[in-house]
Design a protein that fits this description.
Strand content: 15-25%
Distance between the termini: 27 Å
Largest sheet: 6 strands, parallel
Bound molecules: nicotinamide-adenine-dinucleotide
CATH topology of the largest domain: Rossmann fold
Oligomer: single chain
Length: 252
């Protein structure tokens, strides 16, 4: 692993337009369970029964009781971890331009990253299905499930459920950045949710290096990624930053 960490630090030091694609794996160390993998939410729930827009429309109370209520508590308490902090440092060094995140937990922004595309929306806000009034999730009253707006309409989180389309501006900008970047760091994603998982493929086809950081291999590992650094993102990213800062110092 040491060799690959050196290699990633060197690649980043030479990069002019690095971006990152992040997934649920990077927020595990902040106490937020992922969807897939050990301890994943899908060990308890069937995604199509709880995270599909049709499931929400059919029975919002069921989805609120099983998934959203718990998620609200977990995300309310979560704080950025080492991975988020490393990505802030990479941005402030001028190396990392943008983060495309599949996460809905706002931890990149809480940590201090400025340019974050929330590909799957954001759990920080809800919207009334009837009058479209927005409400901060922190102010949502969970005494009655599903929570309702003063107009009587049901609140939904401003996240993208399965079966919904990615906001076109997010999709277009992500595709553009993916084809323009020279490095894409792919951190903590199982790379199975589309079209997010297409971004590294676009990057690779456009000539970028794709560097994966994940304890497990993914469908990208053979074919799309230049290399996989196998390990927990907190440790791996901190070590890459260490090496990179050493290099920058040595180069004067
Ligand atoms: P996923 O749940 O499908 O996969 C998690 C990935 O993280 C796996 O590949 C796993 O091997 C890896 N992983 C586990 N521990 C890790 C660690 N310590 N360091 C690095 N990687 C680690 O996640 P995904 O690919 O982002 O799935 C996409 C969907 O999950 C998105 O739609 C997203 O909205 C949703 N989601 C988001 C959150 C969040 O906002 N934190 C949490 C759960 C699910």
């Amino acid at each position: 692993m040491d060799d690959l960490i050196d290699k990633a630090a060197k690649d980043l030091a030479n990069s002019k337009s690095a971006i990152a694609l992040t997934g649920a794996g990077i927020s595990i160390e902040s106490g937020i369970p992922p969807f897939r993998g050990r301890g994943g939410i899908w060990e308890k729930f069937d995604p199509m029964e709880y995270a599909h827009i049709d499931a929400f429309t059919k029975d919002p109370a069921k989805v609120w009781n099983a998934l959203l209520r718990e998620m609200k508590g977990i995300i309310d308490r979560a704080k950025p971890n080492d991975v988020h902090k490393v990505l802030v440092r990479l941005e402030s060094l001028g190396i990392l331009k943008t983060i495309i995140t599949q996460n809905i937990d706002s931890l990149h922004q809480k940590a201090g990253n400025k340019d974050v595309i929330e590909f799957h929306g954001n759990f920080a806000w809800h919207r009334c299905l009837d009058c479209e009034k927005r409400c901060e999730t922190a102010d949502i009253n969970l005494e009655h499930i599903p929570p309702r707006c003063e107009c009587g309409g049901i609140y939904r989180p401003e996240v993208i459920f399965f079966g919904e389309i990615i906001p076109p501006n997010h999709l277009m900008r992500s595709r553009q950045l993916s084809s323009d970047c020279d490095i894409m760091l792919v951190v903590g994603t199982s790379a199975v949710v589309q079209p997010a998982a297409l971004m590294p493929v676009i990057a690779k086809e456009s000539g970028a290096k794709v560097i994966e950081i994940n304890p497990e291999s993914t469908p990208l590992t053979d074919g799309t990624s230049d290399y996989l650094i196998k390990g927990n993102a907190g440790e791996v990213m901190s070590r890459i930053l260490n090496q990179l800062e050493r290099r920058i110092k040595a180069d004067g």
